[in-house]
């Protein structure tokens, strides 16, 4: 996988981690897929935002290490429902330059905290159909406990902090055309809806 720690093109206008308002949504929705993938990486961390389907074998190759006894891979996929409503598809948008920096900081912090050898976080942008992967988190560690804990903590922090938003299209109402913007952190690890604070 390529290494690119140079400055990246900034698309969008909203630096917060809240879902965009309709005017901000218009600016964010014009992200140009030809400017992607956008990547930040080092010898032990690989972060990327992509429009194409995720390259899962490449992420496992990156995290594999002769000193790692555990390789943990999490794939977040689009399911066909949310809160008992049928979902036809999702679309993801982001503030790329900030999202990449946030994802890298999360990876670096969790890597140190749990003693992880290598970390990959890759998030899709654009339309992600039902059963397709929207995020991959892959980590390697000396032992499984730190790998499990580290991968889960990365995912929870990404949902809480990264400048990435999803838009859901429901198949049961007129919202099929408009969609509904939603923060990634709207549900917890058990699928329970988290009330805004």
């Amino acid at each position: 996988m390529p290494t690119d720690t140079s400055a990246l093109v900034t698309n969008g206008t909203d630096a917060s981690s809240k879902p965009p308002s309709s005017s901000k949504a218009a600016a964010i929705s014009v992200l140009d897929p030809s400017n992607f993938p956008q990547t930040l990486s080092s010898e032990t961390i690989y972060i990327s935002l992509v429009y194409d389907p995720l390259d899962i074998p490449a992420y496992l190759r990156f995290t594999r290490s002769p000193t790692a006894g555990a390789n943990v891979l999490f794939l977040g996929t689009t399911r066909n429902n949310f809160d008992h409503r049928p979902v036809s598809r999702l679309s993801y948008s982001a503030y790329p330059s900030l999202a990449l920096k946030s994802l890298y900081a999360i990876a670096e912090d969790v890597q140190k905290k749990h003693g992880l050898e290598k970390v990959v976080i890759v998030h899709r942008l654009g339309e992600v159909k039902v059963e397709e992967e929207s995020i991959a988190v892959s980590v390697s560690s000396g032992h499984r406990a730190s790998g499990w804990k580290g991968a889960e903590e990365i995912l929870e922090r990404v949902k809480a902090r990264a400048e990435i938003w999803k838009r859901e299209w429901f198949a049961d109402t007129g919202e099929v055309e408009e969609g509904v913007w939603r923060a990634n952190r709207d549900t917890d690890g058990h699928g329970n809806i988290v009330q805004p604070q």
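Strands lie at 38-41, 45-50, 70-77, 81-82, 85-94, 116-124, 126-129, 133-141, 164-170, 180-183. Residues 96-114 form the longest helix (19 residues).
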